[in-house]
Amino acid sequence: MKVHIKFAGQAIQSVIDCAKQNFPGYVEFGEGGDKVSSALLVIGNGIADKAYAVTESIDSAGMREEELLFHLCAKLGKLSKSDAITAKVESMLSSPTLSRRELITGIKSGFRVFSDYPLVFDGICEAKYGCTKCIDSCPENALKLEGALKLDSDKCTKCGLCAGKCPVGAIQMPAFSEDAFIGMIEGMNKVNLERKSLMLTTVETKAEPWVHVEHLSSLDVVNTRWIAMTLASGINLIMQGKINEEIRKSAQALGRKVTEKEDYIEIESIIENTVPGFSSFDSWFNYISSINALKVSHVEGLRITDIKVSDTCTLCGACASQCPHAAFKIDQSGKLMFNPAECTGCGLCAKVCPEGSITLEEQKELSLGMKEIYNDEIIRCARCGKPIYTKKFYMHMVSRIGKEDPMLKYCNECKQRIIYESLFGNVKKVKKAI
């Protein structure tokens, strides 16, 4: 999004230089371009222009120049990556579920009055795999699955819980999307300070120096991933307002030093090597990278999935072949391997398992590497020695047939050869005769 900067008073050269240097191509000064597809950032007070998609300001009264530049970078980072403009897409209220392609073409086609209903991105939404985290979290039952995830705008109160629960960032609140949040964090880090903080609040407040304040309508939009990314960037996080229990657990798990009151949490970032940057397209990767950087020891509230496999597993491979994130692997020795760092907990593996052997649960001890979760004896072809299935799968087939069929001990290729030889004789002799 193009950001236009206006000065309520005299122009400040350091602001102009900072904006041009750190956000080239995103910033213009004064009016220009299409207001309805641009943001306005006011330095000072007394300017408002509703023609812009978004208008924000920095009250620079009494600020030192370095502090002003700190807030400027945070605001420009947020606005340059903001999705608030997408809420003006013409088709949104009639069809709130948009693909990224529809989102882009919609922006080009036309706009309507600003709205901050959640946007659902079908391309990355895991409802198609069985995930129902957003549906289960909605207190108004405004979300339902009808082939794709659908939002009932008449029921939706825009609380943001659905966006906070989504593990892959498939639901975004246009007024403060994940891209905008990442842009803000990266903008804050453009200013080299030993200590800096971010305050997310629903209460009108004027923060102390070097604390950037973002006012939200609800803290429910905040999720464990945002907390982890903030701390992994070397930024302290303060939350003020009504804080849900899951966020409190996440704060305790991710922070080494946490100050907690009824409507207030402050988490100090204590980290040796910060994460250098985040992806705009892989929310889960951002989360796992942050957890690794923070070297957390507690796990409650982090929503990292563990897989339990019962003895009914036949290592048929359905979980490994169907997992959309390749979190499973079966090796030739009969081991089923699982990588929690790749698993978002969609539940598709349990859904496709023909034996009902898979159970998902939250980790009790943090483990993010590939690990063995099940193994069985491998039966090899009696003729060529190629591994064909596990002993439990073999016994399963025997029980279905009702007897031990000798042909079960051969791979498909050798079965064909045996049948051919029974009809025409030895393959080598036939070839020699030809």
How would you describe what is shown here?
Helix 2 (65-80) runs antiparallel to helix 6, helix 7 packs parallel to helix 8 (245-254) and helix 7 crosses helix 9 (283-294). The strands form seven sheets. Strands 11-10-12-14-13 form a five-stranded mixed β-sheet. A four-stranded parallel β-sheet has the order 2-1-3-4, covered by helices on one side. It is of the alpha/beta class. It is built from 14 helices and 21 strands. A hairpin with a 1-residue loop joins strand 7 (143-146) and strand 8. Residues 87-98 and 100-113 have low confidence and may be disordered.
Task: Summarize the model shown.
The chain is of the alpha/beta class. Helices cover 30% and strands 21% of the residues.
**Averaged pLDDT, please?**
85
Record field, number of beta strands: 21
Strand content: 15-25%
Radius of gyration: 28 Å
Structural class estimated from helices and strands: alpha/beta
Order of strands, widest sheet: 11-10-12-14-13
Shape type: elongated
Terminal residue distance = 73 Å
The biggest beta sheet reads: 5 strands, mixed
Query: How large is the count of helical segments?
Result: 14
Helix content: 25-40%
Stretches where pLDDT is under 50 for at least 5 consecutive residues are: 87-98, 100-113
Itemize the secondary structure elements and their pairings.
Layout: E1 2-7, H1 13-22, E2 27-29, E3 38-43, E4 54-58, H2 65-80, E5 97-98, H3 100-109, E6 119-121, H4 133-137, E7 143-146, E8 148-151, H5 161-165, E9 171-172, H6 178-188, E10 197-201, E11 211-215, H7 224-232, E12 236-240, H8 245-254, E13 257-261, E14 264-268, H9 283-294, E15 305-309, H10 318-322, E16 328-330, E17 335-338, H11 348-352, E18 358-362, E19 371-375, E20 378-380, E21 387-390, H12 391-401, H13 412-424, H14 427-433
Parallel strand pairs: 1-2, 1-3, 3-4, 5-6, 10-11, 10-12
Antiparallel strand pairs: 6-9, 7-8, 12-14, 13-14, 15-18, 16-17, 17-19, 20-21
Helix pairs in contact: 1-2, 2-6, 7-8, 7-9
